[in-house]
């Protein structure tokens, strides 16, 4: 009950979030994630997920440091589906806003990409795979982080596979990854029009444009719109 209460107190809009952060709660929650009780592991990781939501970089770095990458990846192979979902939620919250994405991926990119690969290849629910593809879309939104996907042909083939999947949620998430990879907004932080052109050329050669073109005819309106948006970026 106490750890459930902490989960709620650590929500973004909670006025008690700051004082709790200063009381050393991160270490406490990280130790809960090592509990033998699945319910306590869920609550520990859930509270960390809430804490990481729209947090500043200092808090995110502290969570990664206190939890440790080994424990983070142990939780990503937890037998309890709730623990896995909340850990993916934590990872998704850590990997939001470009400078944070680039910083975390520059230190832990190799392990995160390995974890993503294992989950996408494994026997997991649609929800788990959708959340994992959303994490990949966040990585694709980084300036330097997106190169970890662009230089990984195996990962690009997986995105391509999920774009053609029978489940619309997975198609949407995979199409969002591609949208972020081809985005050519020059914002002076390492990405250039040339970089974006090279990415677009590589993705075209791998058959992504053909799939996007097919998806613009999809029966699902959201998928159709997302594919059209991605196609417009190609023409921009």
Automatic annotation (TrEMBL):
Start and stop residues of the ARM repeats: 67-109
Keyword Nucleus on entry: yes
Cell location: Cytoplasm; Nucleus
InterPro entries: ARM-like (IPR011989), ARM-type_fold (IPR016024), Armadillo (IPR000225), ARMC8/Vid28 (IPR038739)
Entry protein name: Armadillo repeat-containing protein 8
Key words, A-Z: Cytoplasm, Nucleus, Repeat
PROSITE patterns: ARM_REPEAT
Gene3D superfamilies: Leucine-rich Repeat Variant
A GO cellular-component term linked to this record: GID complex
Top-level taxonomy: Eukaryota, Metazoa, Chordata, Craniata, Vertebrata
Keyword Oxidoreductase part of the UniProt annotation: no
UniProt record, GO biological process: proteasome-mediated ubiquitin-dependent protein catabolic process
PANTHER family: ARMADILLO REPEAT-CONTAINING PROTEIN 8 (PTHR15651)
Species this chain originates from: Aldrovandia affinis
């Amino acid at each position: 009950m106490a750890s459930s209460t902490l989960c709620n107190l650590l929500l973004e809009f909670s006025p008690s979030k700051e004082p709790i952060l200063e009381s050393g709660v991160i270490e406490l929650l990280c130790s809960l994630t090592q509990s033998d009780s699945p319910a306590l592991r869920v609550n520990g990781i859930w509270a960390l997920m809430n804490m990481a939501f729209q947090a500043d970089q200092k808090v995110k770095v502290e969570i990664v440091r206190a939890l440790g990458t080994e424990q983070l990846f142990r939780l990503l192979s937890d037998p309890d589906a709730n623990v896995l979902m909340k850990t993916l939620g934590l990872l998704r919250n850590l990997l939001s806003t470009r400078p944070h994405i680039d910083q975390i991926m520059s230190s832990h990119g190799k392990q995160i990409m390995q974890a993503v690969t294992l989950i996408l290849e494994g026997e997991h629910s649609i929800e788990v795979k959708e959340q994992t593809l959303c994490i990949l879309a966040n990585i694709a939104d980084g300036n330097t982080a997106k190169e970890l996907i662009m230089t990984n042909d195996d990962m690009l083939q997986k995105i391509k596979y999920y774009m053609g999947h029978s489940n619309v949620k997975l198609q949407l998430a995979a199409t969002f990854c591609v949208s972020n990879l081809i985005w050519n907004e020059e914002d002076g932080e390492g990405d250039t029009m040339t970089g974006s052109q090279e990415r677009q050329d590589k993705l075209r050669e791998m058959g992504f444009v053909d799939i996007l073109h097919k998806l613009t005819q999809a029966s699902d309106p959201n998928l159709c719109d997302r594919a059209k948006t991605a196609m417009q970026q190609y023409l921009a």
